[in-house]
Design a protein that fits this description.
alpha+beta, single chain, 15 strands, 7-stranded antiparallel sheet
Amino acid sequence: MGAIQEIFRRHGSAYRAQFGETMPASHARVIEAITDCRSAASGSVLYQCEDCGEPHVVARCCGNRHCPVCQQGKAEVWLSRQLERQLPTPYFMLTFTVPAHLRKFLRRHPREGYAALFAASSGAIKTLAADDKHLGADTPGFFGVLHTWGRQLQYHPHIHYVVPGGGFDSADGRWHAADRGFFLPVRALSPIFRAKFRAAMREVGLLAEIDAEVWTVDWNVNCQPVGDGQQSLTYLSRYVFKVGISEGRIVRADDSQVVFRYRKVGSSRQRMMALAPAEFIRRFLQHVLPTGFMKVRYFGFLSPSFSMPIEEVKGRIELAHGFAVSAAQATQSPAEPVTPRGRVCSHCGGKLRWCSMVLPRPLGSRGLWRLNAVGWGDGTG
């Protein structure tokens, strides 16, 4: 059992009792999911070894995207897929952060606010990339990941974008490469980002609820090169399915305190923060996303709906670079795909085959639900 799950199991019931009437339903579901993950309350899965025939019963994961136990495997699958699609060009990471004065508004209107953050920041990238003074390409490609936390689990909404260094222009169909260490000027992105967010809020009728000071300050945008291909994607995969705090940062958790490590921005010195268990849970839950909200989004030539297959994208980039992006890339061997860790037999190491799944029935009914190759049935039989 992980440290975060242990905190929720020991203190989640008291937290729900204290805030039950005012707690959002999504928060209650997350408490229940993390508490029950990989326990009898979530049911079980039956596997059988394809080599020795040994049966294996494994407790089910909750599958909740806010559960730290369930995210590691998803990150590995995502990375494997992205490495197959990696492009022969430098990559950049752009981070768009909202001013502190806007945070209370986003807490009140997360669905509208987060959607506007995506629309405004991605629109700023597209607008500036199309400018002939910069990239001169009206179709860049990138994907973004919404995060809402800071290093102390405080509320700090921002979006990380992973961007291959270049784009296509519809006028000539060619690949327009960015300079190796520079993609787009952040000072120009900031006011465009702010203006587009303001327009989005006006459109949904929420502009009057925002503190006017928000429009008088600079909005922080950061851009940095993160390397080529496999190295950058491996590093950035940790951002995609990350939750507010990792298990490794928890130093101690008991009935009175949760102590975890953190570093201030720009400092390498480790610090400790101690929170009461209820405050730790509160900070964790404030990062629960609206139901069904997509926190990872793809744009331009990286969008699944883009008309050009990824192999053609790779070919046009290679052609534009003369088949040699850099001396290092010219000599390195193709990246080996990352194979997601699968279940293996603890007796012989053979591959496990899924046989059936047992789920608890709704509260108040008897027995279990079983799913096997035939279909659903009564798990008591």
